[in-house]
Amino acid sequence: TENRLWGGRFTGKSDPLMDLYNASLPYDKIMYEADLTGTKVYTQGLNKLGLINDEELAEIHRGLEEIKKEWASDSFVEKPGDEDIHTANERRLGEIIGKHIAGKVHTGRSRNDQVATDMRIYVRENLTKLLELVANFVTTILKRAEQEIDVLMPGYTHLQRAQPIRWSHWLSMYATYFTEDYKRLKQILERVNQSPLGSGALAGHPYGIDREFLAEGLGFEAPIGNSLAAVSDRDFVVETLFWSTLFMNHISRFSEDLIIYSTAEFGFVQLADAYSTGSSLMPQKKNPDSLELLRGKSGRVYGSLSGFLMSIKSIPSTYNKDMQEDKEPLFDALTTVEHSVLIATGVISTLAINKEKMEGALTMDMLATDLADYLVRKGVPFRETHHISGECVKTAEDLKVSGIDKLTLEQFQKIDARFGEDVKDVFDFEVSVERRDATGGTAKSAVLKQLANLASKLQ
Ligand code: ARG
């Protein structure tokens, strides 16, 4: 443990379990590149201050490059005393270029501004990648919706058949959710992309480092305006976890719909083999495991958010080791979301739909609202027509005919004299969906507008 970077004031040995308990290297090494980049730019800042000369800077950068290669080729040798990625990289730099020069890189810097910087770089990189994956997912949904615009299906409330809609309208609903996720992600990225570097441990930089220069060098929009906030703020982690949670909630509902639609009882969709599994016992089974995992994994992401919120709920300002607990939930959530969006994209692009089953599930009672609207168009107040249409449904049930469309004109007129010959035109699902051509509705023109509008937001 003589390796420790902070060993000067310590004489006693540490408990080996404490070393393990304290160490974050097993999981924060995933940020090695962000850490090396941070040090590269930081030492340029020190060079501008004259605290590191040009030859030393070149040596440092050479060493950092070498360390990067070691991590990338999995040949970096971790040593006892490497607490986290920051100490491991600095220790290794000393071995490569000598402790005399390596000993200068941390001048005026603390792991507190360092870790906040690394995390922001890492999160930015991952959210940028996710942005593209989500856009691709939405594009896949939109493409499908356009191709299958003519397919009708039942729309549900309370999971009870409600009104006929277009299958594409259902797809467009999820495309709407996921497009909002896309936009939300962009907004979060703006707040992630702020620079804590040059804040020191908490109080600020003692050599007047150019924080704007550091921010720019690392691609950040600007330095965070208060050094205490810079080292203590993990809101960007919370926002990322919240985004992930909400996204997974949408994924979960999307999956649940498709699980239901893929049952034999519905039979609207069939999953591709690539996203299904069989049963070890029942030979006939084809299970929608991909969708169940998407639904199930949403739970662990919710857990990451709520767990981390608990971890930080009453920590005093500024840095406290509790904050190290940001990493595992964050990394886990990012991986889960990345895999989930890829699986969901795969599922929706390979799914087969069964148009006959979808349209076969439409029943005439789903046009009861249209029947009420028919009388509205003849000048009858809607409250009244709602009641009349209800009576028609009941009469059809009492007479045990297969649907309201089977009532004779006489039977209709017995219920209300204002029914005319043209009432039969109501009983057409296509006519029903096409009536709903106001913005956002299920008519073909309205759905196509939605698709175009969503596509235009993905830039
Ligand atoms: N591994 C630590 C973390 O993830 C780095 C910061 C340590 N800072 C400190 N003052 N002990 O939070």
TrEMBL record:
The keyword Transferase does not apply. GO terms for cellular component: cytosol. InterPro entries: Arg_succ_lyase_C, Argininosuccinate_lyase, Fumarase/histidase_N, Fumarate_lyase_CS, Fumarate_lyase_fam, Fumarate_lyase_N, L-Aspartase-like. Residues 8-303 form the Fumarate lyase N-terminal domain. Coiled coil: none annotated. The keyword Lyase applies. Its EC number is 4.3.2.1. CDD domains: Argininosuccinate_lyase. It comes from the Eukaryota. GO terms for molecular function: argininosuccinate lyase activity. Residues 366-434 form the Argininosuccinate lyase C-terminal domain. One of its GO terms (biological process) is L-arginine biosynthetic process via ornithine. Keywords: Lyase. It catalyses: 2-(N(omega)-L-arginino)succinate = fumarate + L-arginine. Pathway: Amino-acid biosynthesis; L-arginine biosynthesis; L-arginine from L-ornithine and carbamoyl phosphate: step 3/3. It is an enzyme of class 4 (lyase). PANTHER family: ARGININOSUCCINATE LYASE. Belongs to the lyase 1 family. Argininosuccinate lyase subfamily. This is argininosuccinate lyase. It comes from Scheffersomyces stipitis (strain ATCC 58785 / CBS 6054 / NBRC 10063 / NRRL Y-11545). The lineage of its organism: Eukaryota, Fungi, Dikarya, Ascomycota, Saccharomycotina.
